[in-house]
Write a structure and sequence with these properties.
Elements (H helix, E strand, L loop, with lengths): L6 E6 L9 E5 L14 E2 L3 E8 L4 E8 L2 E3 L6 E2 L7 E2 L1 E3 L2 E5 L4 E8 L6 E6 L4 E5 L1 E2 L5 E5 L6 E2 L5 E5 L9 E5 H4 L6 E2 L5 E5 L4 E6 L13 E2 L4 E2 L4 E9 L2 E8 L5 E2 L4 E4 L6 E6 L17 E2 L5 E2 L5 E5 L2 E5 L1
Parallel strand pairs: 18-28
Antiparallel strand pairs: 1-12, 2-5, 3-4, 4-11, 5-6, 5-10, 7-8, 9-10, 11-12, 13-21, 14-15, 15-20, 16-19, 16-21, 17-18, 17-20, 22-27, 23-26, 24-25, 24-27, 25-28, 29-30, 29-31, 31-32
Length: 323
């Protein structure tokens, strides 16, 4: 999967004489403006140099172009993901910036024929490790909201939205976004609420991206991009398990209880303490409100059958067609 990095750009009003002898010098390399360890790698329209920085540090730097120290870097606007703008700082003639995570930061210096160059710092992509809840022996599920930035969905996870129209029984239907966008990399917006389903495991890493979020269509889920305190009018995700129980649902959150940042939730229908989720198009596992319940199944003759039986079955007093 291609990692996308957020570009932080600021203009430098300085003429450049070509793509050679360009260095990055700073307090992180003892202001070395001559050695190979600080010289940038040249491309057709820019030069690059990577450095590994620690988290939570402030670093000073300058660009050195053919012996000229480019120090007047004040006032450039930077942006990372959907977060607020911030700026390169200035300390005397030195420019400085802060790091938020440890990783490899890329300095990129662009030039053009108009005499105006620009420098950018590409920050390493942030990640979010998500753990899904076991629904049964085959499926794992979780509600999710990226919260701080857009993310790409890793392989092995399918994304589901919940339609806004309830069923006759007052439950809701989930639709497979990954199937609706087959062949595409799904990008989740930083305030988007979704369900995650996997058959491959319960732990996945979601990676920051600057790509535009995938349009989900009709989606009744909300994203907790910050903590949300319920007034008794929200439903939160849970997995019901136990004897004759194994399904995904949303239950009413008591007044005053907080829904954590990074989760998805729903508005509570009137007088509803719980709604179950029907997974559209799934024929096994959590395909219905009963999911893969472990209650005994019988055929029409009253004989016990297992999950491999094909035909009409009776389970918990209801008839189903097991295909």
């Amino acid at each position: 999967m291609r990692k996308i990095f957020t570009l932080l750009t600021l203009a430098i009003l300085w003429a450049t004489d070509g793509a050679a002898n360009i260095y990055v010098a700073g307090d992180f390399n003892d202001w070395d403006a001559a050695s190979g360890s600080s010289e940038m790698q040249y491309f057709s329209d820019h030069a690059e140099k990577k450095f590994y920085f620690e988290a939570g540090k402030t670093y000073k730097f300058k660009i050195v172009d053919n012996g000229n120290w480019l120090g007047d870097l004040n006032g450039g606007t930077m942006r990372r993901g959907a977060s607020s703008d911030w700026y390169f700082g200035k300390s005397g003639s030195d420019t400085f910036f802060d790091t938020d995570i440890a990783g490899e930061y890329t300095f990129t210096y662009y030039w053009n024929d108009g005499g105006e160059g620009s420098v950018s710092i590409i920050y390493p992509a942030r990640t979010q490790d998500i753990t899904l809840t076991t629904v049964n022996t085959s499926y794992y599920a979780a509600s999710y909201c990226p919260a701080d930035y857009n993310v790409t969905v890793p392989e092995g996870v399918t994304v589901w939205r919940i339609g806004s129209t309830p069923t006759a029984e007052g439950n809701y239907t989930a639709y497979n976004v990954s199937k609706e966008h087959t062949g595409e990399t799904i990008v989740l917006g930083n305030e988007t609420g979704v369900l995650l389903i996997s058959e491959e495991g319960d732990s996945f890493t979601f990676t920051e991206t600057s790509e535009t979020a995938t349009e989900l269509g009709d989606n009744n889920l909300k994203g907790a991009y910050e903590e949300v305190t319920s007034a008794g009018d929200y439903l939160a995700f849970f997995v019901a398990t136990g004897t004759q129980k194994n399904y995904v649902a949303f239950a009413k959150v008591a007044s005053g209880v907080t829904i954590p940042k990074g989760k998805a939730y729903m508005d509570a229908p009137t007088a509803s303490s719980e709604v179950r989720i029907m997974f559209d198009g799934m024929t096994t596992g959590i395909s219905s409100v009963e999911g893969a319940a472990h209650s005994t199944m019988h055929n029409l003759l009253g004989m016990p059958v297992n999950a491999g039986y094909r035909g009409i079955i009776i389970r918990d007093g209801k008839k189903f067609v097991n295909k």
